[in-house]
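Technical annex B. To support the medicinal chemistry partners, we prepared a structural model of the target in complex with 2'-monophosphoadenosine-5'-diphosphate, based solely on the information shown next.
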Amino acid sequence: MSDLIDRYAVFGNPIKHSKSPQIHTLFAEQTNQSLTYSAVHAEVGQFEQAVKNFIKDNGKGLNITVPFKEDAWKLATRHSDRSKRAGAVNTLKLEQDGSLYGDTTDGVGLVRDLMHNHHIEISNKTILIIGAGGAVRGIIEALLAQHPASILISNRTKQKAVQLAKDFSDLGTIDGCGLDDISNNSFDLIINGTSASLQGELPALPGSIFADHSCSYDMMYAAQATVFMQWSLDNGAEQVFDGLGMLVEQAAESFYIWRGVRPETSPVIKHLRETL
Ligand code: ATR
C-alpha cells in the first residue's frame, strides 16, 4: 500500500511539462528521504477538493503553480511573513495538527542561484528589474534583504512598477518607472522578470543599461540562450544566466520546509541542464 509513504506533488493546470517531479525525486534519492512526488492536474474550481483528497491519501506537502496560487493562499491557515509580502504561496505544508502552512520560495531561490551558484554579489550593487507582475513581486524582498545600493523596477505598464516599488519601499531604496524612462543609466545586475521570453519577445529597452561588468539574468530558461540573454550579450553584458538554477533552488527550499533537510542543488541543476 502506498499510504505508508509520504506523498508530495505539484498542483497545476496545465502541469504535464513540470520539472518538479524530476527535481524532487533526485533530491529524495540524494538525501535518502522516503517519499514520492508527482504532478497533479487539478480542474479549475476543484482545487480545494483535490488537495483534501491528496492529504487523505497521505499527502504531506504541495507545490502550487498556475492557476491555483490564489486558491492556495486562501487554503493556507498560516502564512510565512515572506509569503505575505509576496502575496503568493508556492509551497503548502501539512502541519501536525492537520492545518496547512503557506510559504513562498521563489525569492530565496533566485538569491541562492545568483550568490551561491554564480558568485554574483548583490550587496551595494545597482539592480534593474524588468516587469512588475507576480513573478517580480515574489523576488523583491529577498533581493532587498541583501542590501543592494538600489533597485529600479521598470515595466511596460509604468503604474504597476511604481505601485510595486511603493509596496516594498520600507525595506530599502526602490523605485518604479516605465520602460521608456530608463535613458542613459547602466546597472550592475539586470533581471528580466517579464513573461516576454516565453513568446520569444524582448521588452523594449535601450542597450545602454549594460556596463562592461553588467550581469544579466533571465528568470525564464530554455535549452538555448533566451532572446533576452542573447540581446544582453550583444549589448555588452559580461555575464548572462537563465532561470534554471532558480527553479532548482526554489524547489530545494520547499524540500527543506517539508523535510528539514537541504539537498545539494548543483548535481541536480547539472542533470537538468543536460536533459533540457
Ligand atoms: P507573472 O506571474 O509571470 O509575473 P504577470 O503577472 O502576467 O505574470 O506579469 C507579466 C509581466 O511581464 C508584466 O510585467 C508584463 O508587463 P505589463 O504589466 O505591461 O503587462 C510583462 N510583459 C509581458 N510581455 C511583455 C513584453 N512583450 N514586453 C514587455 N513586458 C512584457
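Notes passed to the chemistry partners:
The two ends are 34 Å apart (CA to CA).
The chain has a mean pLDDT of 96.
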